[in-house]
Design goal:
138 residues, alpha/beta, Rossmann fold, five-stranded parallel β-sheet, 5 helices, 38% helix, 14% strand, globular
Length: 138
C-alpha cells in the first residue's frame, strides 16, 4: 500500500512534544520528509532521532517560531534539503508562554501568527517549489 504523504515535504513547528510530536511521527510514517521544529532543541532532536530510527527522512530545525527570521530559516532549510515544501503544520501551545515578558507571542488572532510565519516574499518564493500543492494546516 502506498503511503499517503510519500514524497511530500512537511514542516511541523512545536513538534518536540505532545500533539506536534505525534503529528511529526505520523507524517513521517506516512512517507513525508519532515522538518521537526521546537523552541527547545533537545525535544526536536529526540523526535528526529525517533523518525530516523524507523527509516524516515527528517531534519531538526530548533527555533522560536515568533522570531522575525525564523520562517525564512525553516522554510529555507526544507527547500534546500528536499527541493520544496508541501505542508506547513503549526503547533504553538499556550504553554509556550513561560513568563509575562513573552506577551508579544500572541495566539490571538490566529491569522496574525500565521501571517507572521508565512509572509510576503516567503510564500512567493515557495510558489515554484510546491509541486502538487501547498497546505497550511492550523
Amino acid at each position: 500500500m502506498e503511503k499517503m504523504l510519500k514524497d511530500r515535504v512537511a514542516i511541523i513547528t512545536g513538534s518536540g512534544r505532545g500533539i506536534g510530536r505525534a503529528a511529526a511521527l505520523l507524517f513521517a510514517q506516512e512517507g513525508a520528509k519532515v522538518v521537526v521544529s521546537d523552541i527547545d532543541a533537545q525535544p526536536a532532536e529526540e523526535v528526529a532521532k525517533a523518525i530516523k530510527a524507523f527509516g524516515g527522512e527528517c531534519l531538526a530545525v530548533p527555533g522560536d517560531v515568533t522570531a522575525p527570521s525564523f520562517a525564512e530559516t525553516i522554510v529555507g532549510q526544507a527547500v534546500q534539503t528536499w527541493g520544496g515544501l508541501h505542508i506547513f503544520r503549526t503547533m504553538y501551545p499556550p504553554s509556550a508562554l513561560k513568563s509575562p515578558e513573552d506577551s508579544d507571542r500572541s495566539f490571538s488572532p490566529e491569522p496574525q501568527r500565521i501571517k507572521k510565519i508565512c509572509r510576503g516574499p516567503l510564500i512567493e518564493d515557495l510558489s515554484g517549489n510546491c509541486s502538487g500543492g501547498f497546505f497550511l494546516v492550523l
